[in-house]
Amino acid sequence: MDPDETWRLLGEACSKMDWPAVVEFANALLEWLEKGRFAPRMTNLDDGNHEVSRTAVFAACQYSLEWAEQSLADFGNRDETGFALACIHCGTRGPESYVSAIDEEWSNLNYDPQAASGRFLGKCPNCRRQQLANSRL
Ligand SMILES: [Zn+2]
Hints:
Blueprint: H1 3-16, H2 19-34, H3 50-78, E1 84-87, H4 98-103, E2 107-111, E3 119-123, H5 125-135
Parallel strand pairs: 1-3
Antiparallel strand pairs: 2-3
The structure holds zinc ion (ZN).
């Protein structure tokens, strides 16, 4: 396993709220660190002191793992009512399952607090691309 690459992928999974991937990468890194192996390089914190990186990465992995597991558990509890997703920006309806939404690169999936259970709001791939393009102007 390449800890630098796994650390990068974990960050990406967290920003996409791709919970199954967060669980996978966080667990892989925790297992790696528990074996006493070197910590991944952290862009801002890394001053060559491996203990600093190790402690920070360990805490970040544990936090993101809890966050992901809680989100997946919440989703499981509400699963009976079915999955519905709409884009918070343009209103486009999303695919019929959480996994397909992640596949199609929907991001920022969250429960719609004002709707019946099982309804999510997120950012559709088009709006996401649009915002990325605007942020580069
Ligand atoms: Zn949209």
